[in-house]
Automatic annotation (TrEMBL):
Protein name stated in the entry: 2-keto-4-pentenoate hydratase/2-oxohepta-3-ene-1,7-dioic acid hydratase (Catechol pathway)
Parts forming coiled coils: none
Residue positions binding substrate: G390, D391, V392, L393, R412
Binding site for Mg(2+): D413
Amino acid sequence: MTSASEQIVPQPVDFTERASRPGKVVALHLNYPSRIEQRGRSPKFPGYFIKAGTSIANTGDSIERPAGTELLAYEGEIALIIGETCRRVSPEEGWSKVSGITAANDWGLYDLRHADKGSNVKNKSGDGYTPLGPAVLPAAGLDPKALRVRTWVNGELVQDDTTEGLVFPFGQLVADLSQLMTLEEGDVILTGTPAGSSVAQPGDVVEVEVDAPTAPGAPSTGRLVTRVVAGEHEMAPYGAQPQVDDTQREEAWGSREAAGLSAAPEKANDDGPAPEQVSDHYVPSAPVADRSLLTEELKAKINETAVATITAQLRKQGINNATIDGVRPTHPGRRILGYAKTLRYVPNREDLFKAFGGGFNAQKRAMDSVQQDDVVVMEARGEKGTGTLGDVLALRAQVNGANAVITDGGVRDSEAVAGVGIQVYSNGAHPAVLGRRHVPWEVGGTIACGGTTVQPGDIIIGDDDGVVVVPPALLHEVVEAAYEQEQQDAWVYDRVAEGHPVDGLFPPNAEWKAKYAEYRAQQDGQGTA
């Protein structure tokens, strides 16, 4: 131990160097009373998860929020650095095995929490998700109950708490973990975050600092700085896809109010847990899009095939109700193709609009979470007496990579929306704002638009005739048949142009089918089919 007057000198460390990188990083779920009260869960014993060593980053490094995700959350924490190999130590001995402390930011992507909740592998172990530093405070001479952790976002203080009242003291954490595993020199234990953890957006700068304000010289780790950037890469289709619901938003933002949600409904009785607490896993209400379906080859065939021909082939498959009726394009002559991203409005009720219409509502969340090649499809019940889209949100969808927006309701600021350039199908223009007839309600559910059912991931194809919804499971079969039909129809058109009568030619009888087969064989032989 140092003397009362001896100052503790911070030691700068580069944790990404092989020699300094921790062998393992163990993180604690809950520890600070402020966070426990916020979460509404009171742990009897410590609960942990492991973070990958490759998640370690230094001060000044950037962290990417993957494309198509929404809830990247920071958690300012105190990190314990184990100073010697130990096994089965007591809580009284635990702190003596700690050589130093530093600042940490336990980043998590709530969009992937459903994938492996509990283990947190995909949620918590991305590259750069565990920045540490910039300096280490030697543990000798520090009072583990007199430390402070603070977090700033863009210069604003958002977390500020001390270790005085921790539920699980640091010595207990070291002792508890050492009962099962050998703790080695350089291992890191993240000790939990206080209240104030929330969501960061691309462009934000998040800083974490740990200090000992009552120790001689008030030593500090300095500020651990992380810059949030927008990632260019979406989640691969062969792994879990981003999924969020209001429960995840509340926990990521820290409260329902911060997330732009209404107050939670009161329970009628205490007979059981709320529905979202029954299972640890979020069950989606609609399938997740297989974003590998639209290959370049398939896109080329679709873009050479009329929507009318695709609709006819769907009918042959027994799918008669596949067109979104009543909508017309803002930009005639331009086709659309993409994966359905769904948004549902419900009829306006003033109390519900007050609760759900403001803040980061479902309409804004839909546009803000658009992925490349999405087509946003809105259920507005065919209500044309108000707008469901304006130029700002149309632009947001376009910037995020959407190919089109479809609404069976109205569009306001129609001239400005047209000027954005993104293709929009709508039921017409109307000057009134959303709240006149609608409450934005749900993103990512199964909806009804223009008289047909649309699920997330359905393939949306549109031209001047209208819009058709193709079930993903039928896409290849329908497109191949429709493309072949299109080639045959083009050949028939040329024969009619040559003067042949349509009787027996349209549709072709056996004689004309044979001639067409001969023509195709010749084209295939020339490599131009």
